[in-house]
Design brief:
Helix content: 40-55%
Radius of gyration: 19 Å
Distance between the termini: 50 Å
Structural class: alpha/beta
Shape: globular
Largest sheet: 6 strands, parallel
Number of helices: 10
Bound molecules: NADPH dihydro-nicotinamide-adenine-dinucleotide phosphate, ligand F7E
């Protein structure tokens, strides 16, 4: 699949360091990493708005913001995000808030003259039993994982909206599909977070209290692919500079671990010496979702940070910024 605009040297490619770039969701895990990356590369004209200053679910406010600021580039990293429990417990929020944010931001970006937009989806867009590793072409080929279908439907709508605007208006909107992410500025909430920050916090608190056991959800057998958010930010900037096609692009590490292996690794990095207890009343979710990121590798991008190094880096950040 290729788009009408597919030229790295097109005027929409990110080249000028003074280009005005709106990073939506800049206080989150992904948005903050993208800001760090852009600043490290010397970009000087970033437009940033916190949730309290600009609620992206409010269409009028979003339109007014774009009319005044007129950003040239948009990276959409604002979304309602959470782990398996949050997705399963708040389905209305996950579908409605995400549809609202992405519809407002994508449509206003087009109408107010943004040259290029990157939308972020997630590996949960693929069918629960997709072929492994999952190629981009597996989209819409089978039923979704029930614990996150509401979020996945919103994300699929975002990909399709970018494709529709490209086809109808010849507008440069692209989509990146990250695998499970982690790193500084993650959400360490005990229930609503993803597995890696949840376990880091639980092991840390158990170590501090001298607890003998830590509860881990599910069977431990599901496989997950993890990517450090600094690698993801590097990949996002690479896509902004080098890709302008119709089809979404997978962004993964290519390496997977079982949840049991992950738990053992986090336990080791944190230095907890007790036992793991598995809570089988909690859902496992998708059994496996390793993405095929060969399309991105073929464009010339590969990740650099190993899971072990990334965990050490994240725990250091947790100790300096989160723990009580
Ligand atoms: N984390 C992961 O493992 C993965 C994430 N992704 C995708 O990456 C993107 C970013 O996720 P991540 O950084 O993890 O999420 P976070 O929850 O860390 O950050 C989301 C950001 O969006 C902002 N936001 C949420 N609602 C609104 C709103 N109504 N108006 C304005 N801002 C809002 C949040 O602000 P505030 O906190 O103030 O509400 C926050 O800054 C999402 O599209 C997600 O789907 C994809 C795959 C995996
Ligand atoms: C990024 C991705 O994230 C979500 O999908 P998920 O990969 O299933 O996410 P998760 O990180 O929450 O769980 C991974 C696995 O880990 C197990 N697990 C063990 N113990 C804990 C634990 O303490 N917390 C959590 N959250 N999970 C735990 C858990 O039971 C599951 O088997 C969706 O939001 C989806 O929409 C999405 O895009």
């Amino acid at each position: 699949m290729s788009g009408a605009i597919n030229d790295a040297t097109s005027p929409s490619a990110l080249s000028d360091k003074s280009a005005k770039i709106f990073v939506a969701g800049h206080r989150g895990l992904v948005g903050s990493a993208i800001v760090r990356k852009l600043q490290a590369l010397g970009f000087t004209n970033l437009v940033l708005r916190g949730h309290a200053e600009l609620d992206l679910t409010r269409q009028n406010d979003v339109e007014s913001f774009f009319a005044v600021e007129k950003p040239q580039f948009v990276i959409l990293a604002a979304a309602k995000v959470g782990g398996i429990h949050a997705n399963n417990t708040y389905p209305a929020d996950f579908i409605a808030v995400n549809l609202q944010i992405q519809t407002n931001v994508i449509d206003s970006s087009y109408r107010f003259g943004v040259k290029k937009l990157l939308f972020l989806g997630s590996s949960c867009i693929y069918p629960k039993f997709a072929p492994q590793p999952i190629p981009e072409s597996a989209l819409l080929t089978g039923p979704l994982e029930p614990t996150n279908e509401w979020y996945a439907i919103a994300k699929i709508a975002g990909i399709k909206m970018c494709q529709a605007y490209r086809i109808q208006y010849n507008w440069d909107a692209i989509s990146g599909m990250p695998t499970n992410l982690y790193g500084p500025h993650d959400n360490f909430h005990p229930e609503n977070s993803h597995v890696l920050p949840a376990l880091m916090r639980r092991f840390h608190e158990a170590k501090v209290k001298g607890a003998k056991e830590v509860v881990v959800w599910g069977s431990g057998s599901p496989l997950r692919e993890f990517l450090h958010v600094d690698d993801l930010a590097d990949g996002v900037v690479f896509l902004m500079e080098n890709y302008s096609g119709l089809e979404h692009v997978n962004v993964g590490s290519g390496k997977e671990v079982t949840i049991k292996e992950l738990a053992e690794l986090v336990k080791e990095v944190v230095g907890f010496e007790g036992e793991l207890v598995w809570d089988s009343s909690k859902p496992d979710g998708t059994p496996r979702k390793l993405m095929d990121s060969s399309k991105l590798a073929g464009l010339g991008w590969t990740p650099k940070i190993s899971l072990k190094d990334g965990l050490v880096d994240t725990y250091k950040w947790y100790l300096e910024n989160v723990k009580q």
